[in-house]
Known about the structure:
Blueprint: E1 2-7, E2 10-15, H1 18-25, E3 30-31, E4 36-37, E5 41-46, H2 66-80, H3 91-100, E6 108-111, H4 114-122, E7 132-138, H5 139-142, H6 148-156, E8 162-163, H7 164-170, E9 188-192, H8 198-202, E10 205-210, H9 217-224, E11 232-237, H10 239-251, H11 256-259, H12 263-273
Parallel strand pairs: 2-11, 8-9
Antiparallel strand pairs: 1-2, 3-4, 5-7, 6-10, 7-11, 9-10
Helix pairs in contact: 4-10
Amino acid sequence: MAVRRRRRGIEERAPRSWESLLKNLFKGSYNQELGRFRSPFAFRGTSGRYDLQPSLHRLKHQASKLPLIERAMFRNFQKYAYREVDPNASEWKWLSIAQHHGLPTRLLDWTYSPFVALHFATNELDKMEGDGLIWMVDFVYCKRFLPPNLQSILGQNFAQAFSVDMLEKTFAKIWDVEAQKGALVEFVIFFEPPSLDPRIVNQFGLFSFMNRPDARLDHWLERLSVQHPDIAQRVVIPASIKWEVRDKLDQMNITERVLMPGLDGLSTWLKRWYTPKAENVPPATAGPPGIASKSKT
């Protein structure tokens, strides 16, 4: 069972158990035409109830200045990172690399895997006493709001999301997208980053890219949800089940050691694994909500 409500037009559900959580995350994943489970959703996990604010916006500049700030940072990143990146790489590859290494951009990280999203909603131990959140966006449905030429590219490639190769063949500059006209002033492109390193591959990731640097995906979704209520959902992970979720993900090997291969990921996983559970966190229940589990002696 999950508590349901709408928050700024977007449905928000708060499952009270691990079983209910899985049911909500896999809701709508069955593709009737294929006869297979192929979810149309992209997932983003956050350790708190955070909005979809890209790192570029977190700089707190006025919206009118964001295009200038974005271009200045991107230009300087290309100038100073020339030894680390192929200078002939397309701007889409440069943008993916910049996002991967922490440069503030208009991009947001997503994953095809609800379990990877759950990891990032429960991997910060100092936030285990607060609710986590999984954003679910129907990226397949979002295609219908793209300009016709972008829809055509996906159709010609039998694809639901773009690859960097598709984008760089059509738009030499990332800012060329801003000149595209569709039924709506704003639209979102979901694209898969190049396989820069094992982290991107293992996290089954993709990016969202708004056609304007001052646009925000959550605001766009809130407006669309009035007439398209299923375009996005939010699944709350109550603090009361966060530790249970975390422990079960660890048992499934959904950990930093796998998602962030290397010594940094290994050390992060070991530190979290051997950190004791906070004393004031309530114990998980083994049965339906409201039925306390019996302690073993």
